[in-house]
Amino acid sequence: MKLNAEQLARFDELGYVFIPECFSQKEVEALRQAASDVLNQQREEVWREKDGTPRTAFACHTYNEACELLVHDARLIEPLEQLFGERTYVHQFKINAKAAFTGDVWQWHQDFPTWHKDDGMPEPKAMNIAIFLDEVMPINGPLMIVPRSHRVGELESAHDLKTTSYPLWTPDNETVSRLVEKDGIIAPTGKAGGVLMFHANILHGSAGNITPYPRRIVYLTLSAVSNALTNPTRPDFIAHRDFTPVEKGASDALARYADEHLVSA
Ligand code: SIN
Ligand code: MN
């Protein structure tokens, strides 16, 4: 799947592209079952909220087949190869649960400062791709983005360990206010199956979820192969050390997996 001229122009101008209903309901259902299975496991890669509710499952593509198929999906790989002009490796893969009632905030941040300072990633030539596993609504802690903020480059930031989030480098409130005053905040919402790709320097965050509606999102981080990590300090399951180009699988791989494995309700 290639981005069209309008999507490329929007990405350049705003710093993100949203593709509603990119994955079918059948594919989403297979991924939701994978997410439930993964998030219920007790292992070091699954991080929790203060009350023990699963919050983030890192690197589950290494032990869950549906997640592994997703990593090789051309709908995710091709647009990034197109934007970077080269092949990509998997820097990170995770499911953020943002559970009903207990899902806690993700502070305002740009992704690149954490990749740069904690992993030694040289350039912002990497990107997060979000795949919605539940409907993302204005009320259940959607990802909020400050459009055009990717153009300001890497902001000054401090290491913030105040929440149940994985540690992030975050700018101060004055900086966030200044950028928001100029360009506002948007929150792409939509059905499960939607895909949101956003620039490594776009400013984003999300509020807590006190609704009964979970907001599970998968994040695949792909980086250009020329942009290998030089000094990763985070565990391997958070910042992978394999910089070989990710291969594209068959276009119907996830749909076929769903046909073979879906447990009907
Ligand atoms: C992130 O940016 O690391 C996650 C934000 C979210 O899932 O709301
Ligand atoms: Mn982020």
Describe this entry's structure for a reader:
With 265 residues, the chain is of the alpha+beta class. It has one domain: Jelly Rolls (Sandwich). It contains seven helices and twelve strands. Helix 2 (25-39) crosses helix 7. Succinic acid (SIN) is lined by residues 96, 106, 143, 204, 206, 217.
CATH homologous superfamily title:
q2cbj1_9rhob like domain
**Total helical elements:** 7
- Give a list of the ligands: succinic acid, manganese (II) ion
In total, the number of domains comes to 1
Distance between the termini: 31 Å
Structural class: alpha+beta
- The CATH class turns out to be Mainly Beta
- Total strands: the figure is 12
Q: Can you tag this structure with a few keywords?
A:
7 helices; single chain; three-stranded antiparallel beta sheet; 12 strands; binds manganese (II) ion; globular; Jelly Rolls; alpha+beta; 265 residues; binds succinic acid
Q: Secondary-structure map with pairings?
A:
Elements: H1 5-14, E1 16-19, H2 25-39, E2 46-48, E3 54-58, H3 65-71, H4 74-84, E4 88-96, E5 106-109, H5 111-119, E6 126-132, E7 144-146, E8 158-160, E9 168-170, H6 173-183, E10 195-199, E11 203-206, E12 217-224, H7 253-261
Antiparallel strand pairs: 1-10, 2-3, 3-4, 4-12, 5-11, 6-10, 6-12, 7-11, 8-9
Helix pairs in contact: 2-7
Bound molecules: succinic acid (SIN) and manganese (II) ion (MN).
